[in-house]
Amino acid sequence: MPRYIVSRLVATALMALLATLVIFLIANMVPGDPVLAQLGDVAASNKAFVAEWRAKWGLDLPLWERYLIFLKGLLHGDLGVSIASQRPVLEDIGQYAPATIELATVGFLLSLLLGVPLGMLAAIKRDSWVDHVARAVSLVGVSSPTFWLAFIMLALFYGGLQIAPGPGRLDPIAFSPPTVTGLFLVDSLLAGDLESFRDAAAHLVLPSIVLAAATLGLITRTTRASMLDNLHQDYVRVARAKGLREGRIVNGHVLPNALIPIVTLGGLAYANLLTGAVMTETVFSWPGLGRYTFRSAEALDFPAIMGITLVVALTYLLINLVIDLSYALLDPRVAR
Amino acid sequence: MSATVQDARSPAPAPAAAAPPVLAVSDLRTQFFTDAGVVRAVDGVSFTVATGEALGIVGESGSGKSVTAQSLMRLLEEPARIVSGSIRFQGRDLLAMSAAELRKLRGAGMAMVFQDPMTALNPVLRIARQLVETMMAHGNVSEAEATRRGVKLLGRMGITTPERAINGYPHQFSGGMRQRVALAMGMSNEPALLIADEPTTALDVTIQAQILELLHELNKDFGTAIVLISHDLGVIAGLCSRVLVMYAGEVVEEGPVEAVLSDPKHPYSWALMNAVPRLDREPVAGKTLTAIEGSPPDPLSVSVGCRFAPRCPFRIERCAEHPELLDIAPGRESRCWVTQAGAALDVRATPPRSAFPVAAAAEAAPFQGAKGEKPPSPSALLEVRGLVKRFPLPKRGFFEPQLYVHAVDGVDLSVTRGETVGLVGESGCGKSTLARLILRIHRPDAGSILFDGQEIATASAHEIRPLRRHLQMVFQDPYASLNSRMTVAQMLEEPLRFHGLATTTAETRERVAELLETVRLDPKSGARFPHEFSGGQRQRISIARALAVRPSFIVADEPISALDVNIQAQILNLMLRLQDELGLTYLFIAHDLAVVRHISDRVVVLYLGKVAEVAPANDLFTAPLHPYTRYLISAVPIPDASIERRRERLRLSGEPPSAIAPPSGCRFRTRCPLAQRICSETPPPLAEHRPGHFAACHFAGTL
């Protein structure tokens, strides 16, 4: 077991290093000369000036040396300066990330806490009304386009019924709670401001449902299939022949086996939610990473794009590490 | 290390007049309500099991024996339903019980052990938890107390270091060990009845002998009544006092094991007995086994008359009427008009219409007498020397040493043109790897393979291609080895075209029809897909495909292991006839020693990647020299209760060691009672002790 953990940690570190290399190479090998792009025609024709300029930015150094400087910067949290905002990229990401993390986490928990029990019930009561509901939910969830679902939800619950708040993280006239984590649900509680907590929570309802819909569908479907698969295994019949109660058979025998594929799916789904909420964030005016990504791409803001790419890569690596480690807990055959 | 056990199986206890039997089943009907219609899987079955009795239920797949077993504990799921009848356990009606009452009984009063120990244990839970929960679900025992009892129970089931084993996970144990754990789970509440559904079918023969011995002890020591379901008459003969024979959902014969096996009173029992070759008998001249024609009836539409009549060699006019199960002698019942009328089932008296009807032409052709009398051809078709194959294991860490599975480790083998060499050994001994090396599916790491004088061990894929025509293979699983999206004709045409053996369409079509006829299939069935055929027919298609390119050498890797005994007999007969007609040479791999003795001229015994013994078949089975061979032979159950009871049994303890780090010197020394110092120091050479009889043992012939 410790050997397995160490091997996974080492592998993840190596992968992270590889990711920085790929990102660095892509940024440095795109056609186009930064000198020509930054200097005017006159300055660019002055050879001495160009050389001085190159030396100033380190562009005269060999590629590998520049990579080491890039790495050193990364280790000090230096992701460069955004062209659009003229602020360090890390600072930008630090500002936008909490909104996304909050939304994605709430959406993920929603899909997990609804999807797993629904999938389990559907499998146990196969072909009953629960099963039909579960299958309908997963079909609708998986096949509804996000932008469509987002507009429908807004039109119905905000515009029509007026029971849900509009876009944004808080009421337009409300103040943000004092920033500690950047997660409004946490910060408002830390400040003891229940009104602000309620406001933040209410604003999360619609976007998190929209964001969770597809994941909920996938998780319900996978849980159902995985449960059905395991319910027909021999060890279930053996458990029945032992005289165990149905509840114990399902929770004690079937679920630990059925959870294994759900961990993989859930982890990857969470990574997807964290990094791919552009559509939902746009419709709900959510000031998150998705919108920051979109804006950076639109403005060809290279330092920002590189920074985001690195963050996305590291998110996936980290979540994969968590998946691998939980495998070892769930399945004794993995870590020997 | 090993024990010589001589015992007489206790006879059936005299039926106690007062006490009710442990189990009384009467007119049980279990049906499957499928989309295609109602399958009457169990159709009016009645029997009783007395306290402490061991009852065997035998039949081929689809006979309803397993469904009967599961009905007894009401473990069946939709779409199966028990529609009528009664099951009384110690006088209480099981079918009237509520789910809660039933639950209290399961695992306590009656327990069950299933066929496949690899899937019967939950892979993600510790043994301790799976063992303890059975006890805790049925009694007020603390977890500590249950664990203590669990350790004791595992020890009783023959698991060494049970204190450590109980904290392990299933994947850390071999199949035999897992079956011991499953037995411990079954016995944990000392049930009055243990139902064992093919408990040894998935195990090697030496492990099977250990498990059967254990079942026998449980029956004797705990007084646990046993219902043993098996397709193997030998297994039943060794353990049970009474046997039920099932066919198409009905009991067709019931009686004391000894009597039923020696003098069957139903033609189906008769056919079962005659279809299996016997390890303790020399094969009859010509070697044809009595294979009854056809296959079991379509479960969706059962005929009104005797269900066995369409396949029965003894049928009379009256068989159009459905016979009842009636007493024909004290303690013996049969569902047959012929024997009820007092007639004997004797081939000589009533020759079967045709034991192998479609093969009439072949049977007319005179056999060359027993195969052993064949003049030995001087030239070896296949000559294998010092063959080695190691498979690298995935490394556990970057700096860890590379480990290998030593699958085949210096094997010599020669096969003469026209002979059949049998290859036997327990699973993991390297049989299949050796076959794949010879066919160059794998590339050997060392050694030479001369086929017809040509070196193929080192030949390139390009050089080997033309030779493939002469070397063909028949695989074990006829369901997995045929492409389900190709018609039979397409499968047979492919090799013909590839090797340029047929060029025109007419020529190809003619050859395909000819091939189908050769394996006794309808020549017009070429347009059909594999799923339209039964297992036996599929294996015929596999053989036809191998024959398509007119090979001289066929490697058959467990070609009949997945088939029922009657179908096994049909395929064996077919292979023998084809060898005779086409002059084929076979390398026949099997774990069933009786079958190997029946079909082989010479037999090679493998143990952990090395040859232990090579000898002419009769010589090997009557006078084995290597202790491992003796143990193997002794472990095979013989379908004759009187022999089985008197038999002096050598029991091999333990399991084969790991092929990753095989023992030094002689591979068998860790399980061998003869082992001495020399055995761990010097690997014994494969020496000729008698003409043609080689054994790799320092003390050959002394056990």
Q: Would you write up a description of this structure?
A:
The complex is a heterodimer of chains A (336) and B (703). With 336 residues, chain A is mainly α. Chain A has 2 domains: 33-76, no CATH class; 96-298, MetI-like fold (Orthogonal Bundle), CATH 1.10.3720.10. Chain A contains 15 helices and no strands. The radius of gyration of chain A is 25 Å and the shape is globular. The mean pLDDT of chain A is 86. Chain B is built from 24 helices and 26 strands. In chain B, the strands form 5 sheets. Chain B has an 8-stranded mixed β-sheet, with helices on both faces. In chain B, strand 12 (326-329) and strand 13 (332-334) form a beta hairpin. The radius of gyration of chain B is 26 Å and the shape is globular. Classes of the chains: A mainly alpha (336), B alpha/beta (703). The interface between A and B is medium-sized, with 25 and 30 residues.
